[in-house]
Amino acid sequence: MGALLLTQRGALAGLAAASALAAQMLPLSAGATEDTDTPGAGRWEINIGASKIHKAGGWERSLPDSDFNYGLGERLQLMAALPYVTVQEHGEPHHSGWGSASAGAKWRMADQDALGVDLAVFPQFSWNPSSGTARRGLGSPGRSLLLPLIAGQRFGDTAWYAELGRNFIERGAHEWQAGLKLVHQCLPALECRVELEHSRVPRDGGQTTASAGAKWRLSEQTILQGRAGRDIAGNREGRRRLVLYLGLQLLL
User: Fold this and answer.
1) What are the tens digits of pLDDT across the range 104-132?
2) CA separation for the pair 51, 61 (Å, rounded)
3) Are 111 and 74 in contact (CB under 8 A)?
4) Which of 32, 69, 81, 154 has fewest C-beta within 10 Å?
């Protein structure tokens, strides 16, 4: 990781690219590499946003694309999420409804001060609250259990986070998921970030996504956050041409 550095100019360039894409499409994306932080005892972290994914055959939008997180002690975070999804295939009518629900718990089991690196686990269970969710293409069929390990380290204004996990899928092939995120405090109120995410199904290939984004602190309790990216490797037929997310993070 020592060879991987993010300069302020490069981070701002990434932010500018993300902002240009966001201005064209407005909503932005889901599924970012996790960090090892938790809200703190008795504190809430609420993310309220919108996301949009464009593929060759159509698009998918989640509005709201939100999750609710509560700090149960200094090391434990409880999470629940349920997006409202709209999908549109070219030449077909669009479908809307609640997507796959998810619930999880993040536990930071080691701190950088003691071990030299932060370590956390974040098991997440997903399911369809309605029998029509998968049939209408609003969520994956069946249930799934994601078991990731997350590591992170901070050096002054710069930090990195890496994630590796296995997603056990009830009605499909299990997959590996990995992510790498680099963040830098570009300005006192602006955090810039770049990410690489990869998912792979054994014997069926994988998909790699690159993205850039930022968090802008509007107040002590409110943060504006967004990112933009696209798939850069993997199956061309299912490749996402544009992945966008824009939202507010509320710290209560």
Assistant:
1) 999 999 999 888 899 999 999 999 887 66
2) 6
3) no
4) 154
Nearest to 18 by CA among 249, 210, 239: 210
Give 45-80 pLDDT, tens digit per residue: 999 999 999 988 888 899 999 999 999 999 999 999
Distance CA 32, CA 179 (A): 8
Whole-number Å distance between alpha carbons of 63 and 87: 11
169 vs 238, which has greater pLDDT? 169
Block residue for tokens 């269970």: 125
Query: Parallel, antiparallel, or unpaired: how do β-strands 158-169 and 175-187 relate?
Result: antiparallel
Q: What is the pTM of this model?
A: 0.81
CB atoms within 10 A of CB 76: 16
CA distances (Å), 206 to each of 28, 70, 109, 115, 230, in order? Answer: 23, 33, 30, 33, 14
Burial per residue of 41-63, b for 16 or more beta-carbon CB atoms within 10 angstroms, e otherwise: eeeebbbebbbbbbbeeebbbbb
